[in-house]
Structure formats: structure tokens, C-alpha cells
Design brief:
The chain is an alpha+beta fold. It is 40% helix and 20% strand. Helix 1 (2-18) packs parallel to helix 4, helix 2 runs antiparallel to helix 4 (54-90) and helix 5 (109-123) packs across helix 10. It is rod-shaped and about 145 Å long. Bound molecules: 3,4-dihydroxyphenylalanine.
């Protein structure tokens, strides 16, 4: 029995020493000291020993138990420390690794196009002028020769704030403001927001953007207007782009023209964007009506001028071949970040 005890002791100590994980220590403990463990089995068998040997053997078994327990404890501490170190090593953060990607922002396509529009005219010597979006009827209509009974003043088209105050329905009131406060020569553009009581659809929005242009000086002719818009069209959309003037009517210009640009999509061949015509209507323009000049305090016998108003949304759809106005307002990043 003594021999067996020694054997168990040596074998178990060796097992404990060689255990690789805290979990296997537990198995060893159960195998030696558990209810059905080897050592426990030996203790039970002591009943068969002659009584005089029992105390000695009991002492021996207890020694072995104590030795094993001490060894188990020691080894458990070692393994726990090793496992902790391994966990810490696995959790190490490498601060030199690249961080998560942060998407770079981009300008809204309309802002890109508007900046370009402004750049082109600034390059031709124009000055950028701002005007109020909440505007007097006087500037939005009266000084622009829009008589009281003109359909454009109908409450259906224009948002009225008060009897004589509107949300400007066009950027043209900036012309009137500039002409009443400055002396020629005048060469300005005025981009900004305008409002009309339209239902939103693929080509309409109750809020949209225009850019107004005005030139007043001696001897300004329709040829200057045509040359200016031709140059603008080429710089904006490319060399092959031309302008086409169609006779039209605006109360504040005489003569007036609707101006088409060569369809940038098909280069004039005819496609869906231009409904097969090869042209896209982009702006209204004309020679400033002498009546408007006089109302604004400019001598129409000495000075003449041209003016134009173009849609910024229109220009953006044209520039990027975008089929529906709504894309510009929906703030879908998948759409917006395509333009840089
Ligand atoms: N204000 C006009 C519109 O909103 C556009 C326009 C046409 C502006 C002719 C002008 C112009 O300055 O001369 O439809």
C-alpha cells in the first residue's frame, strides 16, 4: 500500500507539473482527490488493514493529499498567470495600424456648377451681387415692367408674404436694385434662390435657383449678348456647344429671346434628353427694355444693355446628364458623391 501511495503521488505530481491549462488541473484533482478518485479509493480500502497499521497509513494518505493539494494550488497560480499574459498579448492594440476610413466630403453638384458659372462670368469682368429673397413687389414686378394685371403676378405663381411683399419669383429684381442705385457701366451677375407656387415634379420645384446677368453701358448691342452667351456656353459645356436665340417675350427686355444650348449629351444629334431636337432651353435673355432703364433712372438715350436669367438646376442637369430634378434635392449620398 505504501508503494501504491508513492506511485500515485509521483504520477499525480508529474501530471500536475505537465498540465497545460487550468481546466486540466481540475480533471487531475477529480481523478486523485474526488469522490471516486484514486486516493479516496485507497482511504476506503484502509478498513481491510490490520488496526495497528491504520494510523500510519492514514497519516501517509493525508501527507500525499496535502502534497497534491499544495502542488495543485501552486500550479493553478502559475497557469492562471500564464493564461492572463496570453490573453493580454492577444488583446494588444497596435496603434500604428491605419484607422477606419473616413469618407471625404464633396460639393453638391449644383454648387460645383454654380461655382463654375460664377467663375466664367467673373473671368469676363462681372461682379457678383446679392439680393433679398423676400422682396418688394416693386422690384420683383413693378420696376421690371410687369404690369398689375400680368399673369406672372397671379397668386398661383407667386408666393405673397404681404400685399406688397413676395418671395422673389426670379433673380431679376436684383437688376432693378442695381440700376436704381448705381451708374453705368454696370456688369453684374446675381445667383440665388427663387420661389414659385409649382408642384414638385421631374422638372419643377417650388424653390429653385437662377443666375441673373446684367450689362449696361454705352453701345451695348444684341451682338454683345450673343457673344457673351456663346463664350459662356463653350466654357461651361465644351467647345462644340453653341447658342440658339428664339424670339420670345419678357416685359423687361425688348427684343427678348429664349436661348437654347446645343444638347451636351448628344452634341446636337438628337437624343432623349433634348427630345430629339439637339437643343436644350436654358435661359431667357434680351436687351433691357428702355422703359425699365428709365423707370430705374438710367438715360435710355445714352445707355443700353442686355440681361439674362438662367436656371442653375437646368444647367446642372444638362452638365451631368441627370434625368430628374429630384436627385438634386434628395440628399442621397450615393448620388451626390459621384460629382467632384
Ligand atoms: N426672369 C426670367 C424668368 O424667371 C428670366 C429672364 C429672362 C431674366 C430675360 C432676364 C431676362 O434677365 O432678360 O423666367
Amino acid at each position: 500500500m505504501e508503494k501504491m501511495l508513492r506511485e500515485i503521488r509521483e504520477r499525480m505530481l508529474k501530471n500536475i507539473e505537465e498540465a497545460k491549462a487550468s481546466s486540466s488541473l481540475e480533471q487531475i484533482r477529480v481523478a486523485a482527490l474526488g469522490k471516486k478518485g484514486e486516493l479516496t479509493g485507497l482511504l476506503r480500502g484502509m478498513g481491510k488493514l490490520p488496526p495497528e497499521e491504520r494510523p500510519k497509513m492514514g497519516q501517509l494518505v493525508n501527507d500525499v493529499r496535502a502534497a497534491l493539494e499544495a502542488k495543485l494550488e501552486e500550479r493553478a497560480a502559475e497557469l492562471a498567470e500564464r493564461e492572463k499574459q496570453a490573453r493580454l498579448a492577444a488583446e494588444t492594440i497596435d496603434v500604428t495600424l491605419p484607422g477606419p476610413e473616413r469618407g471625404a466630403g464633396s460639393l453638391h453638384p449644383m454648387n460645383i456648377v454654380l461655382s463654375k458659372m460664377v467663375d466664367i462670368f467673373v473671368g469676363m469682368g462681372y461682379e457678383v451681387v446679392d439680393g433679398p429673397e423676400v422682396e418688394y413687389d416693386h422690384y420683383n414686378f413693378e420696376l421690371l415692367n410687369v404690369p398689375k394685371n400680368h399673369p406672372a403676378r397671379d397668386a398661383q405663381d407667386t408666393f405673397y408674404v404681404e400685399d406688397n411683399i413676395v418671395l422673389r419669383s426670379q433673380t431679376s429684381p436684383v437688376q432693378a436694385r442695381v440700376m436704381t442705385t448705381r451708374k453705368p457701366p454696370i456688369r453684374i451677375i446675381s445667383p440665388g434662390r427663387v420661389y414659385r407656387a409649382d408642384e414638385a415634379d421631374a422638372t419643377h420645384s417650388p424653390v429653385f435657383h437662377q443666375m441673373e446677368g446684367l450689362v449696361i453701358d454705352e453701345n451695348i448691342t444684341m451682338g454683345d449678348l450673343k457673344g457673351t452667351l456663346d463664350e459662356f456656353a463653350r466654357q461651361m459645356l465644351g467647345q462644340g456647344i453653341q447658342t440658339r436665340f428664339r424670339p420670345s417675350f419678357f416685359p423687361f427686355t425688348e427684343p427678348s429671346a429664349e436661348v437654347d444650348l446645343t444638347c451636351a449629351n448628344c452634341k446636337g444629334a438628337g437624343c432623349r434628353m433634348c427630345k430629339g431636337t439637339g437643343w436644350i432651353e436654358v435661359l431667357g435673355a434680351g436687351m433691357v427694355n428702355p422703359k425699365v432703364l428709365e423707370m430705374c433712372g438710367i438715360d435710355s438715350t445714352k445707355y443700353s444693355g442686355f440681361a439674362f436669367g438662367m436656371g442653375v438646376e437646368r444647367m446642372t442637369l444638362l452638365k451631368y446628364n441627370i434625368p430628374n430634378l429630384r436627385y438634386l434635392y434628395e440628399n442621397d449620398l450615393r448620388f451626390l458623391t459621384q460629382y467632384r
